[in-house]
Specification:
- The protein contains five helices and two strands, in the order H-H-E-E-H-H-H.
- By secondary structure, it is mostly helical.
- It has a two-stranded antiparallel ribbon with strand order 1-2.
- A hairpin with a 5-residue loop joins strand 1 and strand 2.
- Helix 4 packs across helix 5.
- The longest helix has 42 residues, at 81-122.
Length: 133
Amino acid sequence: MQIGEVATRTELSLRTIRHYEETGLVTPSARSQGGFRLYTEGDVARLMVIRRMKPLGFTLDQMRDLLDATDRLDGGAVLDAEERGALLDRVRAYRQAADEQVEKLRIQLSRAEDFADTLRARLPQDAPATRTA
């Protein structure tokens, strides 16, 4: 699929996808005869991992590191027990960091909801919203 379809499916901008290509996070699987980037379902899945990591505050280097670990684990190459264990430890560390960030976001969301409730309670129930010029 071409970059426009990938952008639609991933909800990433064309510019963002190109940036991730420039930084080496994702590489189009092929190019058309006209030079257009062509992506596979695997490329889309990779972009979705990146998209999910970004709001959790992971850096591009961390994204690259996790993708490298998962690529090696999923690559089909025979890994000795030590190497496989080290890769799994890296993935576990990212899972733990993600879990910690999710908990921080839950706390922030709870506080934001409390704030919105406080504001809502200050407004008369039957008063329509007014505009200010």
